[in-house]
């Protein structure tokens, strides 16, 4: 790989890149290189090189950081400072920041990393602490010199934000004293030593049976009026007796531990998993045993479905699940720590584990993080929730009443009631704004329309699914290409980059059927997640246009320029004379394996704005002319990573005013 660095558009020197993992997907292999500085990782900085099964480059995802000589010298000085926080002191600071008041679910972890900051890098401790809810889990970046908090994010992903904001600031407002860190660490160490060995990956061949909802009682019965307080008899026709595959039999006792799901007690309330001596679970709603069978069936079935699509490396293991956790809260979450991840479902109002939408939504978080362990930052908060909603809806839509009973709803049983409002899959009126970052469960108002950030991502995915299925395509093929698109990415993914990855996956998986990529492209364009190319004149770039003085002129609005980056040192300038009162928008689309950036200058050579969207993603800059006379603006395209030359360096530029 190092010998082919220039061919694949990697930096000429790879001495500070370390291969940390190789992932395999349907299209090829994905090589994850961690950027190092003075033998310590630069957090969030990696290069992911995706190579197709034919040996050709599929894409490069590059979040590496430039390191100048001055930056490296400053880093050396930080490492040589005599007074640095110890790892234990960093753990103490992080513990205090979280006000940990619930038992740990994993061992805390503290490791030194470099955090990119303005003009350089800050030596820091990356501290991971995962506790039971409502404390939950967080990753914190603690300044290694003064112990201050640089940044943090939650590692507990609830299905909604109804009860609390998952931030350290919210944790600081909690009452009561934190638990003792050393005592709690010792307790989780003892717990891990005494834990039973995880169930085998080898299928037991022993099947049990149990009652389940599939996907939920409202959908099955086509009944809006069904509520949590409805009479038990109202649910009789909603139960299915389903096989519980490859469960465990030990000492005459059957338990719900299999190759893909392991029901266990993880969080409060402390309730033991249900067992039987016959292999038949007969409990119905209102019993923990029913929650156990419902969750086991749905997750086991879903994992087998994922494998049927060709993916054998996405949570292909006994996945820990607590069907009565979250401290009794009316919520559920996917949580990950320094060495483990799991699901937990709450029992407030409708038990979350009664609704396949909730179960599969939370599993969706696990799917994303098990494909991309760097899944954080950028728009991944909203995309994580939106994908989880889509993944749940995809399954519900495949059930007998799915296409007719409120297909626009997600959480059809747990939500859309006095429990909580649920979310919608048809918010095609939501629009993406490139100047924003979309976190989970945010209320967004854009263009006078208010929506939940999660819905901005779930809508085009689900609308593409229903459109493609109406066109005779299979749910399996749509799910397959969406899963495929998650491979080969790193941290900080924004919606345009993820959308481009999905369109590219559609093209690569179905090269002889453009219906898939055209449908997804249209849905993403409709919500401004990716940009449509307007109709207008097309011109070709002419070299040399490396300065403002030699810039190619664009004289007509809606002009498309076909161009190429000739080499890694090449820059291209384009001049637009913008009439008074008009607003210029320039959009640059690189080829799918390259990352070129866009800058905008005035006639004096002052940089006005820039855009750095990432590999294969559209960059956009905009500026208004508020004067009374026309003004000259210069659009500059610069190389960051990827291909160069007339074939591998292609891009298009559209100027609109």
Write a compact overview of the structure shown:
This protein has 657 residues and is an alpha+beta fold. The chain contains 13 helices and 33 strands. It is globular.
Describe this structure in words.
The protein is of the alpha+beta class and 657 residues long. It is 25% helix and 29% strand. It has 13 helices and 33 strands. The chain has a 5-stranded mixed β-sheet with strand order 9-18-19-17-14, covered by helices on one side. A 5-stranded mixed β-sheet has the order 24-26-33-28-31. Strands 25-27-32-29-30 form a 5-stranded mixed β-sheet, with no helix packed on it. A hairpin with a 2-residue loop joins strand 5 and strand 6. Helix 11 (495-509) packs antiparallel against helix 12 (515-526). The longest helix has 21 residues, at 288-308. The radius of gyration is 26 Å and the shape is globular. 49% of the residues are buried. The model is unreliable at 1-6 (pLDDT under 50).
Global shape: globular
- Main sheet properties: 5 strands, mixed
Beta-strand fraction estimate = 25-35%
| Strands in their spatial order, largest beta sheet | 9-18-19-17-14
The helix content is: 10-25%
Poorly predicted runs: 1-6
End-to-end separation: 44 Å
SSE map:
Elements: E1 17-24, E2 28-37, E3 40-52, E4 57-62, H1 69-80, H2 87-98, E5 109-117, E6 120-130, E7 137-143, E8 149-154, E9 156-158, H3 168-172, H4 181-194, E10 208-213, H5 217-221, E11 239-244, E12 248-250, E13 253-255, E14 261-263, E15 275-276, E16 280-281, H6 288-308, E17 319-322, E18 332-336, E19 341-345, H7 356-371, H8 380-398, E20 409-410, E21 423-424, E22 443-446, E23 449-452, H9 453-470, H10 475-485, H11 495-509, H12 515-526, E24 538-540, E25 552-554, E26 559-564, E27 571-578, E28 583-590, E29 595-602, E30 607-611, E31 619-624, E32 631-641, H13 645-648, E33 650-656
Parallel strand pairs: 10-16, 14-17, 17-19, 24-26, 25-27
Antiparallel strand pairs: 1-2, 2-3, 3-4, 5-6, 6-7, 7-8, 9-18, 10-11, 12-13, 13-15, 18-19, 20-21, 22-23, 26-33, 27-32, 28-31, 28-33, 29-30, 29-32
Helix pairs in contact: 6-7, 7-8, 8-9, 9-12, 10-11, 11-12
């Amino acid at each position: 790989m190092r010998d082919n660095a220039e061919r694949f558009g990697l930096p000429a020197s790879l001495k500070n890149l370390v291969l940390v993992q190789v992932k395999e997907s349907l299209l090829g292999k994905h090589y994850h290189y961690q950027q190092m500085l003075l033998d310590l990782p630069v957090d969030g900085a990696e290069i992911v090189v995706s190579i197709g099964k034919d040996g050709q480059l599929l894409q490069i995802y590059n979040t590496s950081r430039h390191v100048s000589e001055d930056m490296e010298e400053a880093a050396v000085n930080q490492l040589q400072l005599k007074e640095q926080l110890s790892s234990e002191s960093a753990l103490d600071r992080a513990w205090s920041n979280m006000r940990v008041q619930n038992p740990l679910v994993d061992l805390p972890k503290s490791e030194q990393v470099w955090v990119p900051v303005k003009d350089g890098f800050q030596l820091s401790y990356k501290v991971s602490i995962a506790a039971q809810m409502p404390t939950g889990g967080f990753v914190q970046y603690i300044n290694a010199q003064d112990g201050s908090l640089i940044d943090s994010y939650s590692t507990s992903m609830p299905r909604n934000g109804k009860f609390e904001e998952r931030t350290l600031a919210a944790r600081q407002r909690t009452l009561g004293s934190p638990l003792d860190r050393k005592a709690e660490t010792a307790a989780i160490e003892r717990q891990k030593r005494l834990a039973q060995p995880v169930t085998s990956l080898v299928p037991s061949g022993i099947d049990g049976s149990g009652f389940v909802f599939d996907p939920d009682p409202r959908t099955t019965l086509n009944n809006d009026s069904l509520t949590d307080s409805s009479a038990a008899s109202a649910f009789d026709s909603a139960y299915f007796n389903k096989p519980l595959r490859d469960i465990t039999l030990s000492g005459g006792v059957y338990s719900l531990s299999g190759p893909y799901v392991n029901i266990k007690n993880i969080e409060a309330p402390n309730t033991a998993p249900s067992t039987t001596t016959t292999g038949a679970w007969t409990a119905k709603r209102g019993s923990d045993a029913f929650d156990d069978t419902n969750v086991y069936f749905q997750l086991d079935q879903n994992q087998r479905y994922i494998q049927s699509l060709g993916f054998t490396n996405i949570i292909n293991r006994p996945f820990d699940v607590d069907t009565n956790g979250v401290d009794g809260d009316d919520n559920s979450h996917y949580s990950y720590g320094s060495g483990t991840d799991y699901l937990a479902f709450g029992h407030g109002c409708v038990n979350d584990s009664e609704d396949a939408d909730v179960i599969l939504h939370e599993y969706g978080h696990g799917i994303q993080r098990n494909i991309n362990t760097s899944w954080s930052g950028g728009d991944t908060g909203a995309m994580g929730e939106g994908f989880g909603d889509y993944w749940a809806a995809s399954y519900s839509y495949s059930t007998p009443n799915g296409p007719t009973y409120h297909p626009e709803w997600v959480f059809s049983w747990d939500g859309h009631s006095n429990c909580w409002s649920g979310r919608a899959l048809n918010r095609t009126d939501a629009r993406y704004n490139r100047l924003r970052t979309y976190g989970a469960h945010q209320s967004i108002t854009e263009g006078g329309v208010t929506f939940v950030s999660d819905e901005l991502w779930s809508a085009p995915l689900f609308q593409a699914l229903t459109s493609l299925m109406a066109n005779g395509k299979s749910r399996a093929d749509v799910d397959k290409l969406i899963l495929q698109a998650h491979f080969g990415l790193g941290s900080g993914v924004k919606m345009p980059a993820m959308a481009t990855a999905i369109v590219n996956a559609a093209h690569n998986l179905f090269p002889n059927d453009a219906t898939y990529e055209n449908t997804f492209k249209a849905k993403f364009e409709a919500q401004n997640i990716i940009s449509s190319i307007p109709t207008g004149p097309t011109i070709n770039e002419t070299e040399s246009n490396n300065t403002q003085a030699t810039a190619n002129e664009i004289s007509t609005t809606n002009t498309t320029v076909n161009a190429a980056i000739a080499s890694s040192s090449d820059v291209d300038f384009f001049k637009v004379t913008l009439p008074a009162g008009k607003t210029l928008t320039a959009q640059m689309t690189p080829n799918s394996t390259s990352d070129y950036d866009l800058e905008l200058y005035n006639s004096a050579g002052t940089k006005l704005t820039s855009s750095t969207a990432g590999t294969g993603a559209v960059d956009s800059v905009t500026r208004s002319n508020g004067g009374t006379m026309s003004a000259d603006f210069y659009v500059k395209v610069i190389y960051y990573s990827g291909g160069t030359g007339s074939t591998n360096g292609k891009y298009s530029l559209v100027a609109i005013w």
